[in-house]
Amino acid sequence: MAEVIDGHGGELALAAARAFGVNEMFTLSGGHVFPLYDAAHKTGFPIYDVRHEQTAVFAAEAVAKLQRRPGLAVLTAGPGVTNGISGLTSAFFNASPVLVLGGRAPAFRWGSGSLQEFDHVPLVAPITKYAGTVTDTDNIAGEVRAALTAALTAHRGPAFLDLPLEIVFSTGEAATPGAPAVPVIEADPDEVSRAAGLLAAAARPVIIAGSDVWGGDAIAELRAAAEALQVPVFTNGMGRGALPPSHPLAFAKARRPALNEADVVCVIGTPLDFRLGFGEFGAARVVHIVDAPSQRATHVETAVSPAGDLRRILAAIADHTGDRADHTEWIEGLRTAEDAGKARDAEAMAAETDLIKPARIYGELRKVLAPDAVTIGDGGDFVSYAGRFLEPAQPGTWLDPGPYGCLGTGMGYAMGARVTYPDRQICVLMGDGAAGFSLMDAESLVRQGLPVVMVVGNNGIWGLEKHPMQAMYGYDVAADLQPGLRYDDVVKALGGAGETVEKAAEIGPALERAFAAGVPYLVNVLTDPGDAYPRSSNLA
Prior knowledge:
By secondary structure, the chain is an alpha/beta fold. It has helices at residues 9-18, 34-43, 53-67, 79-82, 85-93, 121-124, 140-152, 165-169, 189-201, 211-215, 219-229, 255-261, 310-318, 328-349, 358-368, 381-389, 410-420, 432-438, 442-447, 463-473, 487-493, 507-516; strands at 4-8, 25-27, 47-49, 71-75, 98-104, 130-133, 159-164, 171-175, 205-209, 233-235, 264-268, 285-289, 374-378, 398-399, 426-431, 453-458, 497-501, 521-526. The strands form four sheets. A six-stranded parallel sheet has the order 3-2-4-5-7-6, with helices on both faces. Strands 14-13-15-16-18-17 form a six-stranded parallel sheet, sandwiched between helices.
């Protein structure tokens, strides 16, 4: 006979979440969710609180991304939930298994005008894998289990449950939660074989691997497939670092010639979206390998699109025994282009100019970042340079907002990363525009003893808007910020530390002080407002 647990709604919810490996909650205090705090407090379950609910969801998403298991955010009713919507949406676009438990005005008074009375579910349903209101205390554990199972089932994503006041405060009972049972999607073996055959026989094949390769724990299988068929690999998102930069099949700088000349492009675990030219690769045949049928591209024609567990698909590709072409000359040509690109980058990263070029900041960062450092990008123009100049040495060490492009992830991602890795370097890269979205939560980091380093590229403008608007109209509006603003003084006032850097030669020593400080530390680098990351438009 199954064991039974009893307690109030908060205890039942947390017991179910623990069974899925949830080890902490991120929250902003609210009376509607007190029982969840009570359950955590009585059992030593860590609570991390923030100054804005979006930070709580972003912190939970960072845990979900880095640890490949659910992250938990607890938000109070009404504005607590709506303040977390951007975080939920980012998690949806990033396939991050985040669970948001929301408070809800009491059901027995619904329609009477209780404090923060609002029906959250219709708002969050389009951006979650599972959304519902729990109507009986005895059902809380089962609903949490169902929500988390949905969140972890490919294609992964966030889930939401709200708990009416009288439901979560009441007592009930449920069967003791067992181990999670997450279904595995099996790909069509014929489609997998066709994909392998196309890659093996192509004269000029390319692999592009994205975040789902990391999220699906398929890094080793990706390497095995690339090595077995000798195919060059490019990455984006959390696919970065899947092959270390020194690997003979790892490429980053030769992307343009690779995609211009390839005859087969195999995109694995990432959508054919604006980051990949919407999947338009000239005359190349496109293989799109995804973790679920829902992720197959419908806006371009693909040669084949296997859908299922990425580990199994890539392992099968690695075992391909059919005909294959010799890719040696193709790889050598790309290596020549790669080396030329690295030489150009090295020159840019050593620029001695004052005003400081953003590239120089990344040149100095490369000298001080440890191989296992977690680097977080939260910005537009400034963070675009990070994608070009920083090459993660290990998988699972790069966090950016993903295709939804939501600014304000920085402090939440930093909190989740620090909780995940107490002893690693955690470095947040922010534009001065992005700093305005979440910098107040540096106080949350200070108060809870979570040191991180923040580097702000401060050019006093919204760079991704000012330069294109000037090009389009000959003028710009709503694109200026205060030049030279002392974001380091903001962090100092919140209990942290920091400094402003105006000379290129001062960047390296400032970074060394920041990483040695042991407190949240902001390095505020004044950069050249005329230096814009090269792109035709940010409106694609």
